């Protein structure tokens, strides 16, 4: 007869001060006891220490949070290239990156132990999401934590461009006093056109109105505006009415070069373009032409098609063939992808993404994954429960196979979901012996639909 595994994990409860033995006191004591019981922290049954590779100077608070949970963390301040990553990633169960490190299909194929990818930034286009999901690896990001930081940067760029602050500051640093008001404007009363009215665009809308600006926006969805902002029916309508145009869209096939020669020609003469979205959204050579011809009065660019991999690396014509020309143009603000680079934003991103990664590693929860079915189960406080996290191909008959394998045991909870080619089922089962769970894992792993299976307890 099999003997249940005893994991020797105790529930934690706060001590209660002695009280009178009245029913009312008993009632509140029972409520306090229930509120203080904490879910168990689950661990892989194989007892292999989980190792995380964290790159690109991710928030130290995130690194500390990982280490506090017992993970081994190797932290590097720089990005890694594909070859270096392939050489190192084989021994890690999780990786944290920002925007410069590319997780390609080759990297994922070399990551034999990898369970999770955390993108400590807004976007995930630096990860081959399809290759990750096919390998059973969820990808998490933080799409909204730096929204305020980006919105404030745009506001500063509006004033800097309209007042030619960059030019005047550069001249004075070179010993030239050049006080002038020609072609310098207040932004009050001007029209701001926002392309993409999501979390950043909508916050920017409120800030701009506080400065006395008129706000138009264009979005592929019909969105309720904030304040007095007004949605327009087409991109060209926004371009033709706006004194400033700012872009806040993701990089998708339909947004690559969405601002090119035709769109720039629709903009008002003497207007300004701001791009803090994605580097491939703007056709930079076409923008250079519009600036050189004086059709546009200035631009601010924070993102580029190709960016240096580390601080100190050159931003030159070898990286982007137009770089030296762009750098010489007057009233053009060039910044090194700093839209979300504030202490507040990085702290919030670190907290959010590290919590997603830790929850997936510790309990199997895939809530907020961008490429993966979103599944979650409350962690049971009992120490006799084993959790099965089974990532499999989304095909008929899989749940029947899984449930047949689980039929000798009591299934306490079970939840399944699918997304595209991938499905994910979590199940809590009780009274499983050591020999049982080894046999159960072998049985589930042997199915032709299996991608990745973990047992936590």
CATH architecture name of the largest domain: 3-Layer(aba) Sandwich
User: Which structural category do the helix and sheet elements fall into?
Assistant: alpha/beta
Distance between the termini: 21 Å
Strand order of the largest sheet: 8-7-6-9-10-11-12
The CATH superfamily of the largest domain is identified as NAD(P)-binding Rossmann-like Domain
Family: Belongs to the D-isomer specific 2-hydroxyacid dehydrogenase family.
Protein name: Phosphoglycerate dehydrogenase
GO molecular function: (S)-2-hydroxyglutarate dehydrogenase activity; NAD binding; phosphoglycerate dehydrogenase activity
Keywords: Amino-acid biosynthesis, NAD, Oxidoreductase
Q: Would you give an account of this structure?
A:
The protein has 457 residues and is an alpha/beta fold. The protein folds into three domains: 1-38 and 375-457, ACT domain (Alpha-Beta Plaits); 50-144 and 342-372, NAD(P)-binding Rossmann-like Domain (Rossmann fold, 3-Layer(aba) Sandwich), CATH 3.40.50.720; 147-334, NAD(P)-binding Rossmann-like Domain (Rossmann fold, 3-Layer(aba) Sandwich), CATH 3.40.50.720. Helices cover 33% and strands 18% of the residues. The protein contains 15 helices and 16 strands. The strands form three sheets. A seven-stranded parallel β-sheet has the order 8-7-6-9-10-11-12, sandwiched between helices. A five-stranded parallel β-sheet has the order 2-1-3-4-5. A four-stranded antiparallel β-sheet has the order 14-15-13-16, with helices on one face. Helix 2 (60-68) links the parallel strand 1 (51-54) and strand 2. The longest helix is centred in the C-terminal third of the chain and has 21 residues, at 343-363. The protein is elongated. Mean pLDDT is 89; it is low at 1-38. Pfam families: 2-Hacid_dh, 2-Hacid_dh_C.
């Amino acid at each position: 007869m099999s003997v249940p595994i005893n994991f020797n994990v105790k529930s934690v409860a706060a001590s209660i001060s002695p009280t009178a033995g009245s029913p009312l006191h008993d009632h509140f004591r029972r409520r306090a006891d229930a509120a203080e019981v904490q879910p168990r922290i689950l661990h892989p049954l194989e007892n292999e220490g989980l190792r995380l590779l964290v790159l690109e100077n991710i928030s130290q608070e995130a690194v500390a949070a990982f280490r506090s949970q017992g993970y081994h963390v190797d932290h590097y301040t720089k990005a890694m290239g594909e070859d270096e990553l392939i050489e190192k990633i084989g021994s890690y169960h999780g990786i944290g990156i920002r925007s410069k490190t590319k997780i390609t299909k080759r990297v994922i194929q070399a990551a034999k132990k990898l369970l999770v990818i955390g993108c400590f930034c807004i976007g995930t286009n630096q990860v081959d999401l399809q290759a990750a999901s096919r390998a059973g690896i969820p990808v998490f990001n933080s799409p909204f934590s730096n929204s305020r930081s980006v919105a404030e940067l745009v506001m500063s760029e509006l004033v800097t461009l309209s007042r030619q602050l960059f030019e005047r500051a550069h001249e004075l640093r070179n010993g030239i006093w050049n006080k002038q008001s020609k072609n310098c404007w207040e932004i009050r009363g001007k029209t701001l056109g926002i392309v993409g009215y999501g979390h950043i665009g909508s916050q920017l809308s409120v800030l701009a109105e506080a400065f006395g600006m008129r706000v138009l926006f264009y979005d592929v969805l019909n969105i309720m505006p904030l304040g007095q902002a007004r949605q327009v029916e087409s991109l060209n309508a926004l371009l033709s009415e706006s004194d400033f145009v700012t872009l806040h869209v993701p990089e998708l096939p339909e947004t690559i070069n969405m601002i090119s020669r035709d769109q720039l020609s629709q903009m008002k003469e003497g207007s300004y373009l701001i791009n803090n979205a994605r580097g491939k959204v703007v056709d930079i050579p076409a923008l250079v032409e519009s600036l050189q011809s004086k059709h546009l009065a200035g631009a601010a660019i924070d993102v580029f098609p190709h960016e240096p991999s580390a601080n100190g690396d050159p931003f030159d014509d070898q990286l982007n063939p137009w770089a030296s020309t762009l750098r010489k143009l007057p009233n053009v603000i060039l910044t090194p992808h700093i839209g979300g680079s504030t202490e507040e934003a990085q702290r919030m991103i670190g907290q959010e993404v590290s919590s997603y990664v830790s929850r997936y590693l510790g309990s199997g929860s895939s809530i907020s994954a961008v490429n993966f079915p979103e599944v979650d189960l409350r962690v049971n406080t009992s120490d006799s429960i084993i959790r099965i996290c089974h990532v499999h191909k989304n095909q008929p008959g899989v749940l029947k196979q899984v449930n047949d394998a689980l039929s000798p045991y009591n299934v306490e909870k079970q939840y399944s979901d699918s997304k595209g080619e991938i499905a994910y089922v979590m199940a809590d089962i009780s009274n499983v012996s050591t020999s049982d769970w080894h046999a159960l894992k072998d049985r589930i792993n042997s199915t032709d639909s299996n991608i990745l299976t973990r047992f936590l307890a």
